[in-house]
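Hi support team,

I submitted a single chain yesterday and got back a structure, but I'm not sure I'm reading the token output correctly. Could someone confirm the output below corresponds to the sequence I sent? I've pasted both exactly as they appear in my results page.

Thanks,
R.
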Amino acid sequence: MKIFQSTTLAELDYTRDWSGWLQEGESIATSTWTVPSPLTEPSVSTKTSTTATVWIGTAAAEPGEKYLIGNSVVTSAGRKSGKRTFVLEILEPMG
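Hi R., thanks for writing in. Yes, this is the structure output for that exact sequence:
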């Protein structure tokens, strides 16, 4: 499982590339993100035919905490991916 690090001052985008899972001629029809509180989604999540992107705000997060972020998709062929996750670890801001 991937681990990304961020500070409490960040508002960053995270992208999941589904191209290795999609079958030939298939694309992402819908994408759903699971972002736990106190993290926020300050912008609408987006998708392309092979990737899904979410923006995550960490202003209310506690340094030292780790949050599990999930993404699942439904394809143009109706296949459901199940949730794929990564960990977002919150660090103290520098400086």
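A quick pointer for reading it: The first strand starts at residue 3 and ends at 7. Let us know if anything else looks off.

Best,
Support desk
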